[in-house]
Design brief:
Elements lengths: L2 H11 L12 E5 L2 E5 L2 E3 L3 H5 L11 H5 L8 E9 L3 E8 L8 E11 L6 E5 L5 E4 L4 E8 L5 E6 L6 E5 L4 E2 L3 E4 L7 E3 L5 E5 L16 H14 L1
Parallel strand pairs: 3-4, 4-13
Antiparallel strand pairs: 1-2, 1-15, 4-5, 5-10, 6-9, 6-11, 6-12, 7-10, 8-9, 11-15, 13-14
Helix pairs in contact: 1-4
Length: 231
């Protein structure tokens, strides 16, 4: 094992700390940057908040129905929603309704901390394109949508502590930008080309001298798998 991998493994291992009580602060790391995130609040379930298919068919309607972030042409949006029924959740919404063109986007998601089994709460819209690997505790989502519609997902983050890796670098079409939308504070412009982590303040960020892109998503998954087996 290289010195780089050992350093990163030590940082990930230190992340396994439980935070009980009040909702823990949540952060996002990409490259050398760390951002604090703020969640939207919703009284009900994640499915109610997403409002799939009503009134616009085969699409996210949480913006027009529930006042959640607005779907936007050519934009992939991520945001947190704290629901009364499902707890904290991560929403992803791709593109907007009737924008004149469809699109596609692959994404990879891997839980270092948190129960990954059944964590994908909502898929907009073809469940057959999703693959969950019980060995790696990871999800591969193959998003495809037509000009009429959006695409997206909702993951559960309803754990005392969690550490979720995301990667959207495999590419696609119809999307020009990736944005994390905060309820309070500035929105965050992210890169499709680099992996990122979303985690509670119980987790220790990857050292600043070792950005996520230095190792790669596949290596991060291998490190975390070994750590989970030892837990």
């Amino acid at each position: 094992m290289s010195k780089t991998i050992r350093t990163l493994a030590a940082g990930l291992a230190a992340a396994a700390v439980t935070t009980a009580g009040a909702q823990a602060a949540v952060f996002l790391d990409q490259g050398l940057n760390t951002y604090q995130l703020s969640a939207f609040e919703f009284d009900g379930s994640a499915a109610d908040a997403y409002s799939y298919g009503s009134p616009d068919k085969w699409s996210y309607n949480g913006d027009t129905v529930n006042g959640l972030p607005t779907a936007e042409d050519g934009v992939a949006k991520l945001f947190l929603v704290n629901t009364t029924e499902d707890g904290l959740t991560l929403f992803g919404v791709f593109d907007s309704v009737d924008d004149g063109e469809g699109g596609s986007q692959d994404s990879e998601w891997f839980y270092i901390e948190g129960d990954s089994d059944g964590a994908l709460l909502i898929r907009d819209d073809n469940d057959g394109n999703d693959v969950y690997n019980e060995t790696t505790h990871g999800y591969h989502l193959d998003h495809q949508w037509n000009a009429c519609c959006t695409d997206g997902f909702v993951f559960s983050l309803n754990f005392d502590s969690f550490d979720l890796l995301g990667d959207m670098s495999e590419g696609g079409s119809g999307l020009d930008s990736l944005v994390f939308v905060n309820n309070y504070g500035d929105d965050i412009e992210l890169s499709f080309h680099d992996a990122f982590r979303i985690y509670t303040d119980a987790a220790v960020p990857v050292p600043a001298a070792l950005p996520l892109g230095a190792v790669g998503f596949a290596s991060l998954m291998g490190i975390a798998r070994r750590r989970r087996r030892k837990a």
